[in-house]
Amino acid sequence: MNLTLMELNKIKENFNLWQTATSHRIVVCAGTGCLVNGSLKVYEEFQKCIPKSGLDVIVELKGEDKGVHVSKSGCQGFCQIGPLVTILPEGIFYRSVKPKDVEDIVETTIKKGQLVHRLLYIEPGTKKVCKGTDEIPFYQKQRRFVLNNCGVIDPEDIREYIARGGYHASGDGV
Ligand code: FES
What is the largest CA-CA distance in the chain? Predict the structure, then answer.
């Protein structure tokens, strides 16, 4: 596939616009560890549960739709407490999520904007309850470079890589 820099920029612009039109994004970890622990069933359950709750589910961004975008990600980095689910834009981080938890996440977090406390990470030493990865010491000690987008973008949608500047370096070099 040959794309001009202008075409890359158009993909980037559209994808980012469409992403901001959604109300939430639910990112289900589909790295190996979480897959083994059943994250695909969690992903499928979100696709069933969101429409049942009266909301529109979006599995592929194609326009300025207002629904809830459900996507997979690569490894989110804390495999031993998976399956992991991140809710954006709030950055809420849920661990050990099972299909039976999905309805509660949709009703409590997506619809009411509240936390499902039993799914939050608790730091073993301090017993601190952490809402997002920015509060978890395991993540606070990390600084990612090459894998900066791993665990965030959908590895099955090349447009998201482009939307984060992918392939643009070749254009910059011309
Ligand atoms: S596979 Fe999900 S956190 Fe690593």
Answer: 53
Instruction: Give me the CATH number covering residue 87.
Output: 3.40.30.10
- DSSP tag of 135: G
For 83-129, what is each residue's pLDDT tens digit?
Answer: 999 999 999 999 999 999 999 999 999 999 999 999 999 999 999 99
Q: Structural domain of residue 69, as residue ranges?
A: 5-166
- Count of domains forming the chain: 1
Per-residue pLDDT at 167 exceeds 90: no
Is residue 76 domain-resident? Answer: yes
Give the pairing of strands 68-73 and 57-58: parallel
Ligand 1: distance of its center to the CA of 160 in Å?
Answer: 19
Is 30 close to ligand 1, i.e. is its CB under 6 Å away? no
Nearest ligand 1 atom to the CA of 81 is 3
